[in-house]
Amino acid sequence: MKRTVKIIFNTLSSLSFSKILKLLKLTLPHPLFSLLALYATAKSFALAQKEFPKTSATSGIGNAYRHALWTCLILMYCSKVSSPEKALDFCLRMTNMHEELFPNEPLEKKMDLHNNKVGMDLFMELLPGIHRQFFETSFFHEKLLEKLKTAKIVRNIDEHFDEDLVYLD
After folding, report:
1. Contact between residue 145 and residue 95 where contact means Cβ atoms under 8 Å apart
2. Label partner for 84 (CA 20 to 30 A): which of 70, 118, 122, 152?
3. Residue 154: Cβ within 10 Å count
């Protein structure tokens, strides 16, 4: 956990002034959501590192898991204090902003955004069957491990993968 916090701190300290302003514009109006999203970020990093030590920080299958888990966790935590609709809106804006603040190559960006959407869709799919106050990380962990069995390698920016997780070879 200590390592994860250090990574997050170093990442934030690398931002330019204009990027910090963009981040503040999203986070200041939603301080509780922002703290919960930060916690979700740290937890998703730690869980992905534990489960996929070699690929969680690369563009491999562990990264696909981490991004989908990240959005599930943001939604889970934020839905406990607000409506799932508000949580989804914040999660989408936060994860899209992440890709803007920390730009990747186009194929990596497509992969990250796609896996973020898979996680959001998974949460919203599970939502009607479970009261949002009773969600636990284990609900997503099992489902995401199932999805990893059918994960696809993305090679072209024009490819579409529906609900499959994607990663780079």
Report:
1. no
2. 152
3. 23
Which residues lie across from 152 on neighbouring strands? 166
Query: Between 155 and 132, where is the model more confident?
Result: 155
Residue 105 is predicted with a pLDDT of: 92
Angle of helix 31-51 versus helix 17-27 axis, rounded to 10:
110
List pLDDT tens digits, range 37-51: 999 999 999 999 999
Tokens of 56: 């969680």
Apex CA 76: angle with CA 8 and CA 9, to 5°?
5
Nearby residues of 83 by Cβ (< 8 Å), 6 or more positions away: none
Could you please report the per-residue DSSP string of 134-162? Answer: G--HHHHHHHHHHHHTT-EE---TT---T
Cβ atoms of 66 and 48 closer than 8 Å: yes
Distance CA 134, CA 166 (A): 29
pTM exceeds 0.85 for this model: yes
